[in-house]
Every structure is written in C-alpha cells, then in structure tokens.
Hints:
Elements: E1 3-10, H1 14-25, E2 30-34, H2 47-52, H3 54-72, H4 88-112, E3 116-119, E4 121-128, E5 131-137, E6 142-151, E7 155-157, E8 170-171, H5 173-176, E9 185-189, H6 193-204, E10 208-213, H7 224-237, E11 240-243, E12 246-252, E13 257-262, E14 268-273, E15 275-278, E16 282-284, E17 317-319, H8 330-344, E18 358-360, E19 365-370, H9 373-378, E20 383-389, H10 394-399, E21 405-411, E22 417-424, H11 427-439, H12 444-448, H13 459-468
Parallel strand pairs: 1-2, 1-6, 2-3, 6-17, 8-15, 9-10, 9-15, 10-11
Antiparallel strand pairs: 4-5, 5-6, 7-16, 12-13, 13-14, 18-19, 19-22, 20-21, 21-22
Catalytic activity: N(6)-[(R)-dihydrolipoyl]-L-lysyl-[protein] + NAD(+) = N(6)-[(R)-lipoyl]-L-lysyl-[protein] + NADH + H(+)
Cofactor: FAD
GO cellular component, one term: cytoplasm
Amino acid sequence: xxxxxxxxxxxxxxxxxxxxxxxxxxxxxxxxxxxxxxxxxxxxxxxxxxxxxxxxxxxxxxxxxxxxxxxxxxxxxxxxxxxxxxxxxxxxxxxxxxxxxxxxxxxxxxxxxxxxxxxxxxxxxxxxxxxxxxxxxxxxxxxxxxxxxxxxxxxxxxxxxxxxxxxxxxxxxxxxxxxxxxxxxxxxxxxxxxxxxxxxxxxxxxxxxxxxxxxxxxxxxxxxxxxxxxxxxxxxxxxxxxxxxxxxxxxxxxxxxxxxxxxxxxxxxxxxxxxxxxxxxxxxxxxxxxxxxxxxxxxxxxxxxxxxxxxxxxxxxxxxxxxxxxxxxxxxxxxxxxxxxxxxxxxxxxxxxxxxxxxxxxxxxxxxxxxxxxxxxxxxxxxxxxxxxxxxxxxxxxxxxxxxxxxxxxxxxxxxxxxxxxxxxxxxxxxxxxxxxxxxxxxxxxxxxxxxxxxxxxxxxxxxxxxxxxxxxxx
Length: 475
C-alpha cells in the first residue's frame, strides 16, 4: 500500500533536503528520497555538493593549502620545518570524515523536522488520485504518493566524447577527489571552477599540472580585470595553461593518458599525463526519473522546463537546482528549494538571480556578484568603477597574502551598486557584504560611509567603494 504525503522531494542535495525541511517547517507531511550511498552502503544525503563536490573539494583545498604554506611560507614567520611530507591516505580520510559529518547532519535534520527519509532512487510511476505515485527502488523499495512533488535530482559531470570516465585515469570531479597518490603529471581539460580547484589541490602537493581550455581566453564569465589578475597568480604558482585548443584524440594506456590536440596556432601537440581530469561542465540529471510516465516536459539538454517560480508543465510538480535553468550552484538550489516550499504553502517565495554570488575557492579566491564590466559595456550601461588592492590593506600584509583587489561597479547617475568583483584572500567571505548591499539596492556611497573594523580585509571593500568617487584613503 502506498504512503501518502503532502510533499515528496526527489533528491536530497542542497535543493532537495532544504526544500523538504522548509516544507516540514510549514506544517506539511514530507518525504525525501535520495539514493547516494556511503562506502558501507548506508545513506549519504547531500547530493553532489556534499559527497563529490563543494564539501570534499574544500576539505582537500584546505589540506593542500596547509601543505603549501608549510613548504613555502612558514619560513617567513620564523617557523622552520624539515622533511616535510604529505600522507595522501590520511588527507583523503579527513576529507571522508568531513563528508560523513555533513551526511549525518542532514539525516539528523530530517529527524528533527519529522521529514520521512527513503534511501533509494525515486521515479515517477503514474498520476494518481491526490497527486503522483513515486516508486522508490534500491536499498529501500516503496511506493509513495505526493500531492506535490519537488524534483531536485541535480546534475552529472559531462564526459568528453571519446573519453569516458573510468575514475582511474580519466577522472570526473568524483575521481579527482579520490586520487590515491600525488601524480607526477596531471592534465585538466577545462579551466572552470572544478578544473581550477582540483588542479590547484594536486599542484600544491607536487603534481605538474597542465590545463587545456577550448575558449580563447580565461574565465570568460568573470570580470576581465579579475580574470587577468587570477591567471597571473595561477601561472606564477606553477599551473600551466593553454587556451584555444581543439582536442582531437584521448588515448588511455597502462601508464597514463595521451591527449592529442591543436593549439591556438593550429600546431599539433600531444600531452602525456598520468591522470586526466575532465571538467567541461555538467548536465541535468533526469535519467531514470521516468518523466515520460507523467508527461513531464524536458528541454533539449534534458533539463526540466520550469517557469520563473520553478513550476513545471504539470500541476503541483516543481523542480529546483541543477536540474533546471540557471546557474548550477548549491546556494541557488537552496534558495529555490525554500521558495518552492513557501509557494506550496501559499506564501511568496523569492529568489533574486541578480544577487546570487559566485565563488572559486582557489588561492587567490575569486568571488563576484552582479554584472561585470564587459556586460555593462555590452548593455550600454553608463557606470563608474572603483578598485582597491590588497597590497595596500594592513590585514592582508599581516596575513602575508596581498594578491588581488576589490572592484566596485556603480551606476554613473544613481551610484547604485551594479557589481562587485573580488580576487584575493577570503573573497568568498567578503562577497557577502556586497550581496547584502545589492539586495537592498545600496549605493557605493552607502558602503563608503559604513565604518569597517581595523585592521580587516573588509576595509578593502570600503576603500573600493570610496574609489568609485576617486577618494580612497589608503592608496
């Protein structure tokens, strides 16, 4: 006999588990289905983000950054070390512990909020009286009926044609997080977020890393000035980049991978590496959802078609996160999950796509919100720019990390903040002030007039706002 729920959520990643919790807070009877398993076969909710994305990558970035500091920067502080080594197995074990803590935390939150959790794959079976019948298969086998269904099935890594992931030599983000020993040579196809972060991890630990990018330039979505500064920093660190490449062949052998490509000049080149990370984007995960059973509309990419409020073409069926349009970001999925739960309750859920922050957790970190200079120019928007370097910031000097700057872009007439772009230490934290400011439609002058603690990195934000009016105080 089927189990009845007000809301059934398919997928327990950031969008799904947050949607389930918020719906439960609003008084609904909620079920959440998720098929991720840990090494022992137990439930591991949290989706790509917790299991093979945001969380484990940040754990490895932290470990590798400690190693980098110990080997190259501790001496500046008078700290002497000898026989520095890295225990990769222990590093990966710590990463796995961090992941499990997050998995267990989500299960605890389900219990706390009285969300019924089902461990398995959820798929549409048919429309039913009172909603939709959802079949659960896997570790748990069950049949649920939900008056409302929220699909939050996320995305999968896009494979390079002719080079399927084997997670041994040709790696997705999953395999890149589980390399058992530091490779001497590592290739990365794609200079996006995943490629840069994973390339940085293994470069710090001693790998010779070469990044191949099809686009003619670096980080096209990022402000040009920020991208230029970041590329200079990454190149200085030892990452090697080739842009405008056309890959013709990828061959996997016993010793590694050979990548044949034409460089920007049209010359034939062969790159031989022990491991190859392919990070050329992600595709919506709708395989196995059985969307056709109920007539759920998908687009040509396999994404679920939704309107501005995340409604699908079916009544009372919603979709959020990577499986729909918009940026594939965990925090975007969370905001959509909350908004949908509130809309089901008759409230007015809200997601402002113009104030969703973006972060790349390299060193230096890159973070931004709003429009870039190139976008403003393309849109014909008159703007003013203000920039302040971290080399003129006292806290950055004390940290020993003065790479980068903060840039403000403001409307030339109204002074409203149109975009903030940061490359430098703790950019991921500093961007929050800019998001708040833009959400409240603040002007650059508003930030310039706010007292910031001294010494702090946030003073660079204030100074960049002052620079919009050409009146910085410390540069």
